[in-house]
């Protein structure tokens, strides 16, 4: 299950900020990205892009 889907589910029952979700999951996101690209800066860029896209889709 995607972290964004789980966030949508939990947001019905309790108030959780997008920032709180990202802080909780950012290490996992980084590890996955790094496992693909094997470059720290590229992994950080990928995570940043994923967070931006997730936030934009969350606003809808």
TrEMBL record:
Keywords: DNA-directed RNA polymerase, Transcription
Pfam family, one: Sigma70_r2
InterPro entries according to UniProt: RNA_pol_sigma70_r2 (IPR007627), RNA_pol_sigma_r2 (IPR013325)
RNA polymerase sigma-70 region domain ranges (all copies): 21-60
SUPFAM superfamilies in the cross-refs: Sigma2 domain of RNA polymerase sigma factors
Gene Ontology cellular component list: DNA-directed RNA polymerase complex
Domain of life: Bacteria
Name of the protein in its database record: DNA-directed RNA polymerase specialized sigma24 family protein
Naturally occurring in which organism (per UniProt): Lederbergia wuyishanensis
Classification of source organism: Bacteria, Bacillati, Bacillota, Bacilli, Bacillales
